[in-house]
Amino acid sequence: MRIVLVGPPGAGKGTQAAYLAKNLAIPHISTGDLFRANISQGTDLGKKAKAFMDAGELVPDEVTIGMARDRMNQPDATGGFLLDGFPRNVSQAEALDEALKEDGVTLDAVLDLEVPEEEVVKRIAGRRICRNDSSHVFHVSYSAPKQEGVCDVCGGELYQRDDDSEATVRKRLEVYHTQTEPIIDYYKAQDLVVTIPALGKVEEVTERAMAALQGGK
Q: In which residues is AMP bound (predicted)?
């Protein structure tokens, strides 16, 4: 299956992408991984992307699309793939459609992870990270430390990252609504969108998504 995963920040896209890709036996292709791989390998596209990033500029769509297309044409993706974080806007979605058309394939589904906005704010703004080890992550509501502000694992100080503040989260949501959310209507016109309620345990959300994919829209 060839799938695009969309949803607001905090919807759990990365987690669901990993589970779904494993269950469907297809590669999980994320924009972040594409950039890191191309830059570390020194590909032509990676060099172009790095030049823009070093200059503090946005990487042009054609570079991102080129990376995605190269990855989708790798042998492990011949039977399908799951795109996470791409496309981010309608112009990228149109370019993706054109690239897939040229390669003689089409998307099978667009999974829209639906989470209420206030829940997104609560999920992200409630995160606390250990200063000693960023892999030690807590949440003031869902997985609170035994002692407020202190890491259960190593005793380090817990803090809120700047990009996890409520103001920053709401700004990220504005960007999502303005730039990325319109691709849902774009794909609805192609009858590809499957909306998945993303509240609940991770396994429950995965089960809903798998059931929707297997049972059709």
A: 31, 36, 57-59, 85-88, 92, 161, 172
Amino acid identity at 100: L
Q: Catalytic: which of 2, 69, 88, 122? A: 88
Pairing of strands 81-84, 109-114: unpaired
Question: Would the annotation count 12 as a binding residue?
Answer: yes
Are 2 and 190 within 8 A, CB to CB? Answer: no
pLDDT(217) > 50: no
Domain with 76, as residue range(s), is: 2-215
- Residue 55, pLDDT above cutoff 70: yes
Question: Of these residues, 161, 171, 188, 217, which one is catalytic?
Answer: 161
In this prediction, residues 27-55 reach a mean pLDDT of 93
**161 given a catalytic annotation:** yes
The CATH number assigned to the domain holding 161 equals 3.40.50.300
Overall number of domains in the chain? 1
- Phi, psi at 196, each rounded to 5°: -120, 115
Q: Is 216 annotated as a binding residue?
A: no
Proportion of the chain above pLDDT 90, given as a percent: 86
59 marked as binding residue:
yes
Average confidence (pLDDT) over 154-160: 96
Rounded CA separation 51/62 (Å): 14
The catalytic position among 71, 123, 127, 128 is 127
